[in-house]
From TrEMBL:
Superkingdom of origin organism: Bacteria
Location of the TonB-dependent receptor-like beta-barrel domain: 271-809
Gene Ontology, cellular component aspect: cell outer membrane
Name recorded for this polypeptide: TonB-dependent receptor
Predominant cellular place of this UniProt entry's protein: membrane
N-terminal signal peptide: 1-27
InterPro entries: Beta-barrel_TonB, Beta-barrel_TonB_sf, Plug_dom, TonB-dep_rcpt-like
Membrane-related topology note: Multi-pass membrane protein
GO annotation, biological process: iron ion transport
Annotated keywords: Cell outer membrane, Ion transport, Iron, Iron transport, Membrane, Receptor, Signal, TonB box, Transmembrane, Transmembrane beta strand, Transport
Protein family per UniProt: Belongs to the TonB-dependent receptor family.
């Protein structure tokens, strides 16, 4: 068995031993020590400090006292980990050590709940309730957790059913008409061997922002979430147990709450309007959409896990099923390009909602927006902007539906042996449907479906609609050797094979003709197919398929230098599968932005290279770290340095233009992220704990064939500095505890695109028939550094708690995300939440 004992090198031991004794003021009580944390990062239970992985573990106590309810709450407590949560409820992007998950591609981290790997893309951002512990593992974890764990893994452990009856009810109220209610019941179901637990949570908030056109304060960033979870554990005998889990959730929320900002210096010079080349952090946000921004999701997950002690090893097997149905509807982006200019609905809206009659909707006249009344001299003249009160910008509709089945079986040796091992197999079948549609808003309401015919209320003019079928097979294993009493060598490896197929579901029909920009290339008024790929595939768009495979090794050396200090070194590889953009992506972008294809791109000449498919991503990481517990185990201090080299990093690109909008995935050929991170927890006195961490990143794009000018720039969403600092004070008062917790978070300046000031062509070169005259410049499009402060003060008794809380109590205004669209010549920007506050309670029966 691997046990930390005296060091092998006496000289080093003497130096390190001095760290285990400190000033007398830090040795007040031998019994006052930091609580041991048990983790399952290597698929067996181990002490956090013994595991040679950079792990941030959030205990049940911290979850409750820090008010952790969604993923963003605990990520704020972890250095070198950031999160963006914008377009819709499930559309979260997590950056772990600068490697960020990508819209419309696979995730970059494994998300595991109660030992079951989730393939549902929205499950990560579900409501967190009745949770026991959260573990965030940094660095590639592909050897044990498989495909897509290129940046790390996040493990969530929910509460086990209790062997005695217990129940809890809780809730709370807050500003913005917020409320929540939750309940739990647990206990034996059939004797002592069958235990059950059921928990439910519902919450609702109007959000921070108001639609100033509709005068509704529950139409922008509102959310309604009802989630329930059931669990039954059947202890068949002393050696075998079955764990049945089921969950269901329904979510209604706002969607696509972006405002646009131009980034074209030539416009600023020509019109004398600063808003044409604006710092995105100074944007005056206005929510004016006439289309209901809505996102609805329905999610169900089921799993059964077998744990069987065979004597010589444990057999752990699970079967999991997930089903997600999701759509979102919102305003469009193409008004400035006049595609729907002569439609009766656009003409009528401009008569009532122009810049002269409603300056509150558009701001200063032509700085940058100007909407003119209809007429022969004013049609095709204004600068409308996206997401406006008029129907001139059309609408967008999206779906993300997924059904999947996965199976994992592994043998795990006893954790007390000097040679410990794991061997397993994995299989998954994933069916995913993706819809992106753009069409006409005629003021007649909306059918919420992928295709609406020309005689419908909201005809479809541009449609991407694909079915993706994925089959995954994998074998994996790990060996842990005790080379000496203090030195452990771990060798792990996994081979993944993934077969992917995609089939087009877009009907071979023409558009409605209402969008003049989407008619034939000569702009003669004749509609063309609603998917550009049909132009070259008149008899039908063929199916596509490809396969991706990768061996993911990991080697770790762990040295217990003293009873309280571990040093480790590791090398590992992570892999994310390649995939497909929607059919027609390449044809559409070539026509509008690239020369040589006979369209507007002849005058734009952006020279971008976006194809209908993209390569797999492979990351290689080297890491050195240490873990320590000092001053009689009252100070826990862990740190690591690392370098991550990534090939074909999958990067989300957003395109907007006369056609509407398009989402795609490209690749950054070569980049690296290297850095340092440290976190600590210090039990200063009985009841007073300080904690915090810092993350430092240095990154560079080394090769990028799609955007060569970006080479040498920072990696997107890899802020150079992140940190957190906090204190928790527990003070007994008359039989109850007064608990006060203060949390501060800092995130440094963040770029969201590979282009960071390099000027490139825009669609305006075509619209003004002036090649090379109008280039974008994103030098003012990074998000400024920001910091937030959360405060919670409560009373805790044996069976009840009452807590007053405030998030972002300094009311810091900062951006959540910036989505640059280079060929449009601007960015789409999303605000973060403002100050929120309220009171929560729980009562345990």
């Amino acid at each position: 068995m691997y046990v930390r004992k005296k060091p092998l090198v006496a000289g080093l031991a003497a130096v390190l031993a001095t760290l285990t004794t400190g000033p007398a003021a830090l040795a007040q009580s031998e019994s006052m020590t930091i609580e041991e944390v048990v983790v399952t990062a290597r698929k067996r239970t181990e002490n956090l400090q013994d595991v040679p992985i950079a792990i941030s573990a959030i205990s049940e106590t911290t979850i409750n006292r820090a008010g952790v309810e969604r993923a963003s709450d605990y990520i704020a407590l972890i250095p070198n980990v950031t999160l963006v949560d914008t377009a819709n409820v499930g559309d979260t992007q997590v950056s772990i050590r600068g490697v960020v998950s990508t819209r419309d591609a696979e995730s970059t981290f494994a998300y595991v709940v109660d030992g079951v790997l989730s393939t549902n893309p929205n499950s990560f951002n579900e409501e967190l309730f009745d949770v026991q512990q959260i573990e965030v593992l940094k660095g590639p974890q592909g050897a044990l957790y498989g495909r897509n764990a290129v940046a790390g893994a996040i493990l969530v452990t929910t509460k086990m059913p209790s062997d005695e009856f217990e129940a809890k009810i809780g809730g709370g109220v807050g500003n913005n008409d917020s409320y929540k209610v939750n309940a739990m019941v647990s206990g034996p179901i059939a004797g002592e061997n069958v235990l059950g637990r059921f928990a439910i949570s519902t919450r609702e908030t109007d959000g921070h922002y108001e639609n100033i056109f509709t005068n509704k304060d529950d139409a922008v960033d509102f959310i309604k979430d009802t989630s329930m979870r059931g669990r039954i554990v059947w202890n068949v005998n002393e050696d075998m147990s079955l764990d049945f889990r089921g969950g269901y959730s329904e979510v209604e929320a706002g969607a696509i709450n972006f405002n646009a900002a131009f980034a074209i210096p030539a416009f600023e010079a020509a019109f004398g309007a600063p808003a044409y080349f604006q710092d995105v952090n100074d944007l005056d946000f206005r929510y004016t959409s006439n289309t209901p921004g809505e996102n609805e999701q329905e999610t169900m997950d089921l799993s059964v896990k077998l744990d069987w002690d065979l004597g010589w090893a444990d057999l752990v097997t699970y079967v999991a099923y997930n089903d997600l149905e999701e759509y979102l509807l919102s305003d469009g982006t193409s008004a400035t390009f006049y595609g729907y200019e002569v439609n009766p609905s656009c003409q009528a809206d401009r008569a009532e909602l122009n810049s002269f009659s409603r300056p509150d909707l558009y701001g200063p006249f032509f700085d940058p927006y100007g909407v003119l009344p209809p007429g022969p001299d004013t049609d095709f003249q204004g600068v409308y902007g996206p997401y406006t009160a008029t129907s001139c910008d059309g609408y967008q509709y999206q779906e993300r539906n997924q059904e999947d089945l996965s199976i994992d079986a592994r043998l795990v040796s006893a954790g007390t042996d000097s040679l410990r091992w794991i061997a397993g197999v994995y299989m998954a079948e994933i069916e995913r449907e993706v819809v992106v549609a753009y069409g006409a808003d005629q003021g007649q309401g909306f059918l919420r479906q992928p295709y609406v015919p020309a005689d419908g209320p909201n005809p479809t003019d541009l449609l991407f609609w694909d079915d993706f079928d994925t089959t995954v097979y994998a074998v994996y294993g790990q060996l842990e050797f005790d080379l000496t009493e203090t030195l452990e060598l771990a060798i792990a490896g996994r081979y993944d094979y993934e077969d992917r197929e995609v089939s087009n579901k877009v009907p071979n029909v023409n558009g409605s003709g209402l969008n003049g920009n989407l008619n034939d290339p000569a702009f003669s008024g004749n509609p063309v197919p609603i998917n550009p790929a049909y132009v070259n595939n008149a008899n039908g768009i063929p199916d596509r398929d490809d396969s991706f495979s990768q061996f993911q090794p990991k080697v770790t050396l762990n040295w217990a230098t003293t009873d309280n200090i571990n040093l480790y070194a590791s090398y590992g590889i992570g892999f994310r599968s390649g995939g497909f953009n929607s059919v027609g992506t390449e044809d559409l972008l070539n026509f509008w932005f690239n020369s040589g294809f006979g369209g507007p791109g002849e005058l734009v000449d952006a020279q971008i290279s976006v194809t209908d498919d993209y390569d797999k991503e492979v990351s290689t990481t080297y890491e050195l770290g240490f873990k320590s517990e000092l001053f009689d185990n009252r100070l826990r201090l862990n740190a690591a340095v690392f370098r991550n080299e990534v090939e074909d990093n999958q990067f989300f690109e957003f395109f907007a233009g006369p056609f509407g909008l398009l989402r795609s995935v490209t690749t950054i050929d070569e980049m690296y992220v290297q850095g340092f991170e440290a976190d600590f927890q210090w039990l200063a006195t009985e009841g007073l704990t300080f904690y915090g961490g810092i993350g430092l990143l240095d990154s560079e794009i080394e090769k990028n064939k799609n955007r060569p000018l970006s080479e040498g720039n920072d990696v997107p969403q890899a802020p150079d500095t992140t940190g957190n600092l906090g204190a928790e004070w527990v003070f007994p008062i008359g039989g109850v505890d007064l608990v006060t917790r203060l949390d501060w978070q800092y995130v440094g300046e963040t770029w969201f695109h590979t282009l960071q000031g390099e000027q490139t062509p825009t669609i305006w070169n075509f619209l003004f028939q002036a090649p090379g005259a109008f280039a974008q410049d994103f030098s003012r499009s990074s998000r400024d550094a920001y910091d937030t402060l959360n405060l919670r003060v409560g009373l805790e008794a044996e069976n009840w708690t009452v807590t007053a809380w405030g998030r972002n109590i300094t009311d810091e205004e900062y951006l959540q995300e910036v989505i640059p669209a280079p060929e449009f010549g601007g960015s789409f920007n999303h605000q973060s939440g403002l100050r929120s506050y309220g009171v929560d309670f729980t009562y345990m029966f």
